[in-house]
Amino acid sequence: MSNLPKRYSKIAITLHWLIATMVIIALFIGGRMLAGINNSDPEKVTALLGHMIWGLVVGALMLARIVVRFTVKRPAPVSTGNTILNHIGGLVHTLLYLFVIAMVASGIGISILAGLPEIVFQGIGELPTNFNDLPPRAAHGLIAKILMGLILLHIAAALFHQFKLKDRLLSRMGIGKAID
Ligand code: HEM
C-alpha cells in the first residue's frame, strides 16, 4: 500500500491555480495589448510597469512552486493506460515549468538590455523606439507561443482524463471529490 496522498497539498493546489491564471492573463495581455502599444505612446511605461511587476510575481510564485514540488508529498503519477502517453504527460509538465521560467528570464533579459528598471521604476531616461533588436525580445515572443501550445495540451490531457477515462483526475488538483 502506498502512503502517498490522494490529492496535492493545499499549498501546491493554490500555487497551481494562481500561477495558471496569472500566466494566462499575462500571455493574453502581453500579446494582445502591451506589444501593440507603440513605445512613443505615453501609456507604454505604465503598461510595462504593470506587466513587469506581474511577470516578476509569477517568477517568485514559480520558485515557491518548485520548492513545494520537491519538499511536499504529492500523489503518485496517474496512468492513461498507454506508456507513450504517460511519458508525454510527464514531459509536458516539465516543459511547462521550464517555459514559464524561460518566459520570466527572457522578460528580465529584455528589461536589463533596454534599461527598463531605471526608465519604468524610477522615471529616468526614455524607452528605445522598440525592443526588436534585442535577442531576448524575440525569445520572449517565441516562448509565449510555445507556452500557449503547452497549456492547451495540458488542458486537453486533463479533460481527457476527467471525461474520457473518468478517473476524476481534477480532484487531485482540488476540483471535486477525491477518488476513494
Ligand atoms: C510568465 C511571465 C510572463 C508572460 C506570460 C509574459 C508574456 C508576454 C507576452 C505574450 C508578450 C508579447 C509577446 C509578443 O507578442 O511577441 C510580452 C512582451 C514583453 N514582456 Fe513579458 N511576460 C512575462 C514576464 C515578463 C517579465 C518578468 C518581464 C520583465 C521584467 C517582461 C517584459 C516584457 C517586455 C519588455 C515585453 C515587450 C513589449 C513590447 O514589445 O512592446 N515580461 N510578454
Descriptive overview:
- The two termini are 14 Å apart.
- Helix 3 packs antiparallel against helix 5 (135-165).
- This protein is mainly alpha-helical and 180 residues long.
- It has one domain (10-173).
- It is elongated.
- The chain is 67% helix and 0% strand.
- The chain binds protoporphyrin IX containing FE.
- Residues 23, 26-27, 30-31, 34-35, 48, 51-52, 55-56, 58-59, 100, 103-104, 107-108, 110-111, 131, 140-141, 144 line the site of protoporphyrin IX containing FE.
Query: Termini distance?
Result: 14 Å
Q: Could you give the order of the helices and strands?
A: HHHHH
Give the helix proportion (percent range).
55-70%
Average pLDDT, rounded to a whole number, is 96
Contiguous uncertain segments of 5+ residues: none
Q: Could you tell me which ligands this complex binds, including any ions or cofactors?
A: protoporphyrin IX containing FE
Shape: elongated
Largest sheet entry: none
Overall strand count: 0
Treating each run of at least 4 consecutive H or I residues as one helix, how many helices?
5
Strand fraction: under 5%
Radius of gyration: 19 Å
Task: Please identify the structural class as seen in this structure.
Answer: mainly alpha
What is the domain tally? 1
